[in-house]
């Protein structure tokens, strides 16, 4: 598990949701919480202090060690630089931030951080339908055999071991991205066989790690099936790679990850493969 987590904040609802969830994790795991507020150099002084004060209140209630700072500059650059220079293990972010002049970070910034961060990024939507529970009992891991999906799976196994949680391995056969007609039985069968093999390998790996795991193959739009399956099994967390395969065996991930981040009803942990950092 993590020891130091970074929570960027702009005082928006999603940012506060991320702070609250980070606080729950910190309280349970005795983590250090780094709260970062990134502002425009020309911002009003009140904009520099109010969100940070709110962040202290959210995290301070947990009793966890809290380090808070205000930085100026471009949000994505400031977040990534802070994560690298303070040796944090993960970044916890909301999915949307302020709009208009006051919009300082999150939203598209979150997606940019997900793509570029060398550490896992835990994305929390601030919508009322989002379930945020900790400790974790059920974890969904979409896999497609890509290096990013494999890295996400390894992270999920570590988390599952820590929580004694069950991992649900999900492979989505989505024919639309590769232009396969659903009536083309041969090519569809190839995709299904590949998906099943990926799942079988994953179950074997989970068993070797001492983690309870189940598997499922779903058909249709990848991000929708991930969201629906997550709801069906009442999951607490989705763990995904940031990119996926291309061509015939491209089953999910990549742009699908971004769509899941915008619609998921539970927090989503994104993981990059080490050779892509």
Please provide a written account of the structure.
With 277 residues, the chain is of the alpha/beta class. The chain has two domains: 4-124, Rossmann fold; 138-276, HUPs (Rossmann fold), CATH 3.40.50. It has eight helices and ten strands. It has helices at 13-29, 45-60, 75-85, 108-116, 147-163, 185-208, 222-232, 255-263; strands at residues 4-8, 32-39, 66-72, 90-94, 121-124, 138-142, 166-173, 213-219, 237-241, 268-271. A ten-stranded mixed beta sheet has the order 3-2-1-4-5-10-9-6-7-8, with helices on both faces. Helix 3 runs parallel beside helix 4 (108-116) and helix 7 packs across helix 8 (255-263). Residues 97-106 and 246-253 have low confidence and may be disordered. It holds the Pfam family Usp. It comes from Natronorubrum aibiense. Belongs to the universal stress protein A family.
Radius of gyration: 19 Å
Ranges where pLDDT stays below 50 over 5 or more residues in a row are: 97-106, 246-253
As for the CATH topology of the largest domain, it is Rossmann fold
Total DSSP E strands: 10
Helix content: 40-55%
- Strand percent estimate: 15-25%
Our measurement of the CA-to-CA distance between the termini, rounded to an integer number of angstroms, reads 20 Å
Overall tally of domains: 2
CATH superfamily of the largest domain: HUPs
Protein name: Universal stress protein
Family: Belongs to the universal stress protein A family.
